[in-house]
Amino acid sequence: MQSHDPADQAAGLRVAPPRARPPRVIAVTGGKGGVGKTTVAVNLAVALSEAGRRTLLLDTDLGLANVDVLLGLSPRFTLADVVEGRCALADTILEGPRGLLVVPAASGKRQMAELAPAEHVGLIRAFSDLDLPLDAMVIDTAAGVSDQVLTFSQAAQDVVLVVCNEPASITDAYALIKLLSRERNVGRVQVLANMVRSPAEGRELFDKLARVAERFLDVVLNYLGAIPYDEWLRRSIQRQQAVVEAFPSSASALALRDLARRADQWQAPSGARGGVEFFVERLVQGAGAAA
Ligand SMILES: Nc1ncnc2c1ncn2[C@@H]1O[C@H](COP(=O)(O)OP(=O)(O)OP(=O)(O)O)[C@@H](O)[C@H]1O
Ligand SMILES: [Mg+2]
After folding, report:
1. Any idea which positions bind ATP (predicted)?
2. Which residues are annotated as part of the binding site?
3. Which of 255, 102, 169, 148 is nearest to 243 (CA)?
4. How many A from CA of 135 to the centre of ligand 2?
5. With the C-alpha atoms ordered 80, 55, 19, 189, is the resulting torsion angle positive or negative?
6. CB within 10 Å: which end of the chain, N or C, has fewer?
7. Which of 32, 37, 38, 39 to mutate to test the pocket of ligand 1 (most atoms within 8 A of CB)?
8. Alpha carbon of 79 to ligand 1 centroid (Å)
9. Which residues are registered as beta bridge partners of 27?
10. Which among 63, 41, 31 has a CA at the least distance from the CA of 180?
11. How many whole angstroms separate alpha carbon 20 and alpha carbon 202?
């Protein structure tokens, strides 16, 4: 069932009992544009939902909203409306496949990086007010290495860095790792090779990046594996569906589901606070670091 009425959804969400444990927050980033960040974020989130994890997918790319387009959802309100005070964060939530909750961004709006500090605070407050029982939150970030990208990545427990086998992607990935490690104290980055033609290509790509990063930076890179280049994935995008739903036995869907399985086993966040409070705290700390 797909209900797009935010009011209904918000009401339904409020009755669920709170979880004892904070949700796992995973930011999907990459530096370069077009490497597959949104594709990975959407499919990871759908696969986690499929596995029974209450998952929220947060689109923080206010410049170009991809998540709702990729999932064929029609937002009534977006994160931009929250920032501008027109609605509460709960009002923006849409229901995607398998009960996935989606907070959409908005097309053609200003980048979050351009938000005034007061607007940033408003957004953070909106997150504090959102009292949802979640197991996981997946954040799709914009291309580039803006403060916004760094802040959302820092606020997450795990950063999944999507990289392709092309010089610009590797260079941009390195630049992002460098900023995360030097300026944001991120000590571990999960590297996912995308659009590879063979498993060996993914491994070599990772080795290349890890050699440089571990020599010059104080950071541990973990190889998450590779998503193959897959025409079925392109077809799923044309259908506005996640490939794990549309073509569940395609090579890319298998790899993406495997990614979700492993992400689900990463060490659980410590602390017993519920909701998304801890994420908000880290978001505030990150925003402070950027100032
Ligand atoms: N494994 C893959 N196989 C084939 N095509 C892929 C794969 N991953 C991504 N693509 C294609 O690459 C294009 C870019 O993907 P996507 O929008 O996810 O990238 P992005 O990093 O989010 O881009 P942006 O920086 O613009 O937000 C899409 O058209 C998608 O279909
Ligand atoms: Mg994107």
Report:
1. 32-39
2. 32-39
3. 255
4. 23
5. negative
6. N
7. 39
8. 22
9. 139, 159
10. 31
11. 38
Q: Please state the separation of Cα 230 from the chain's center in Å.
A: 21
Q: Which atom of ligand 1 is nearest to the CA of 34?
A: 23
| Residue 29 CB–ligand 1 contact under 6 Å | no
Ligand nearest to the CA of 34: 1
Residue 68, amino acid: D
Contact between 143 and 179 under an 8 Å Cβ cutoff? The reply is no
Domain-wise residue ranges, the chain:
21-264+273-290
Strands (E), the chain: 24-29, 55-59, 94-95, 101-103, 136-140, 158-164, 188-196, 220-228
Per-residue pLDDT in tens (0 to 9) along the chain, 291 residues? 344 444 444 444 444 444 456 788 899 999 999 999 999 999 999 999 999 999 999 998 866 668 888 899 998 888 778 877 888 888 999 999 999 999 988 655 555 556 666 666 677 677 767 778 889 999 999 899 988 888 889 888 899 999 999 999 999 999 999 999 999 989 999 999 999 999 999 999 999 999 999 899 999 999 999 999 999 999 999 999 999 999 999 999 999 999 999 999 887 666 544 446 667 767 766 766 655
Query: What CATH number does the domain located at 21-264+273-290 have?
Result: 3.40.50.300
Distances (CA, A) of 243 to 125, 252, 256: 34, 7, 9
Residue with tokens 């010059």: 216
Is there an atom of ligand 1 within 6 Å of 149 CB?
no
In DSSP terms, 103 is beta-bridged to 58
Name 164's bridge partners.
194
Q: Whose CA is nearest to atom 9 of ligand 1?
A: 36
With a 6 Å cutoff on the Cβ, whether 241 touches ligand 1 is: no
| pTM, to two decimals | 0.88
